[in-house]
Amino acid sequence: MQSSDGTAGGLNPAFGLTGSDSSQSLAASAAGHNYRDAVNGPVHLRLPGTPDSLPPIRDAVVRGAEMLGFDAQEVAKIEMAVGEACSNVIEHAYLTQPLRYEIEVIVQPHPNRLEVTIIDYSTINFPVDEMPGVPLDDYIDTQRRRGLGLYIIRNFVDHVEHRFICGQGNELKLIKYLN
Questions:
Q1: Closest alpha carbon to 50 in 11, 100, 9, 117
Q2: Could you say which of 75, 105, 158, 175 is the most buried, measured as most Cβ atoms within 10 Å of its Cβ?
Q3: Is residue 139 one of the residues assigned to a domain?
Q4: How far apart are CA 80 and CA 51, in angstroms?
C-alpha cells in the first residue's frame, strides 16, 4: 500500500529513516520523540503489530494534535480513538495469519484538521465505519468491562473512513477538525 504522501512506505524523511530500515530501528526512532521536524508533513510510522508499538503511536498522534492547536481534551480524545483502533488491530485483526505483522500509522496535519491513517495487513475485512457498536446505555446497563472501542473511535473523532483491499489489508482514516 502507498502512504498518503504517495511514497511506498518508510518514515517521513525528517526522521532519517527509509522503508528499508528494520522494524526495531523504526520503533526505537519513533520512541525518540523527534516529531518537531515533521510539522509541515506527515509522520509515517511502520512498527511491529505488538502492544509495544502503542506508546510511540500515541506519542506521534499527541504531538501532531498539539502542534495543530487542539485543546487538551480534544488531544486526549484523538489519542484514545487512535489507540483503540490500533489496539483492535493488534488484538483482533492479527488473530489469523496476517500478510505481515506490522502496523503503519500516518499522522498528517492539515491547516484545518488532523488525519490519522492506520494500515494493517490483516486478511480480515473489518469495516469500522459500518460495524454495529454497543449502545452506551446497553453497555452501562449490562456492566460490561469491554466493548466500547467502536463507540470511542466513532465519537471521539469527526470522520471515520475504512477501506479493505483484498490481498493487502485494511486502511482506516480518522479525521478530527479544528473548531
A1: 100
A2: 105
A3: yes
A4: 15
